[in-house]
Fold:
Amino acid sequence: MSVAKEPDFKHGQAPQTGILLVNLGTPESPTPAAVRRYLAQFLSDTRVVEIPPWIWKVILHGIILRVRPAKSAAKYASIWTKEGSPLRVWTEKQTALLQGFMGEQGHRVLVRHAMRYGQPSIGSQLSALKAEGATRILIVPLYPQYSGATTASVMDDVFTWGRQTRALPELRHINHFHDDPGYLNALADSVKAHWSSHGRAGKLLMSFHGMPQRTLQLGDPYHCECLKTGRLLAEQLGLSEQEYVVTFQSRFGKAKWLQPYTEPTLRELGRAGVARVDVICPGFVSDCIETLEEIAMEGKEAFLSSGGKEFNYIACLNDRLPWIRALSQLVTVHLQGWPTLASQASEPGQLLLQRERALAKGSATNGERHQPPVAG
Structure:
C-alpha cells in the first residue's frame, strides 16, 4: 500500500480544527468532454449503481458515456452562470459564510469544501487541511437525508484517503440533519418568504432526489427521512395533508424507483385542475442541475402543458442567512469536546499541564496548613 509523505513539521504550529463541507460535484464546464469525465467518475461509484461491475462497466463505457454526455452538456449549459456551475458557486459561498459565522462566534476553525465527484476532491482538501495544521477534521456531507449512495459514499472516499495517510487526524462526520430544527426553520423561512411575495399556492410539492425502490427494501433510511422532512416542514407551515405532496425525481434506467414520481405527479395535478403549484427541493441545500433544469424547467413544462396555470420554483437554501446560521449551529454541536474557542487552550496537553500545576499548588498549600508542629 502506498502511503503519502507527510507535510513538513512546523515547530510551534498550534493544532487546528478543520471543517470540510462536501457536496455531490459538477463538471468543470458544460461541454461533452467535461461531462463525460464527471459522469465516468460518478457512475463508476458502486454505491451509486449497485449492478455487478463486470456488467455495468460494459453498459457504462459501451453505451452511456457515448450517448449521454452531449445531452447532459446541453442541460448544464442551460443553467451555467458567468461565475460557473451553480452548485460550485453556492458551495463556495456557503464555505466562506460559514467561516465568517464561526469566527464571529469565537471558533478558530478552518472551513474548506470538496466535491465527491470532480474538483476539488475530498482527498486533496483533507491533505490541504493537514498541511495547514489540522489535527481534527469534521466532515459535513451536505445531504440532509442519509443514503448509502450519498453520505456513505463520501465517507468511502474519506477512508480511501485515510488508507494512504500515515498520520491520521481525528475524524468525525455528520450522518444526516433531516430533522434538525435549524434546517427545518430555514426551509420554512424560504417558503414563507416566497408566499409573502407571490401569495400562497393551492399545492406545495416537495421533490427529493430519487433512489431505486430496492434500496428501501435493503434497509436504506433515505425514504423514511425524506418523508419525515416533508411532514415536519408541512407542520411548520401549517399545511394539511391535502395541501402538500412529497415526490421523487431523477429516475434512471428501467428499475422501479421510490414513488410517487415528480414529473408524472405534476402532470396529474395539472390535469386535475390545480391552477398553481409551488415546488421546493428540500434534499438539496444548493441549486444545481437537478433543481434548476429538471424542476424549474422540465417540471414547469410538464405542469403547464397538462393544464396548470402557474408554476413557481422555490430556490434552495443557497446562501440564505437562516441556513448559514443553522449550519453553524449544526457543526458547533458536532465540534463539542474539541478546543475550537479562542478562550480554550490550543492543545489538550497544555490544558492538562495547567490542571497539574493547579493540583500541585493546591497540594503544597494543603501540606503547609496541616504539617505537624516541630518539637523545639
Notes: The chain has two domains: 16-178+321-334, 181-314.
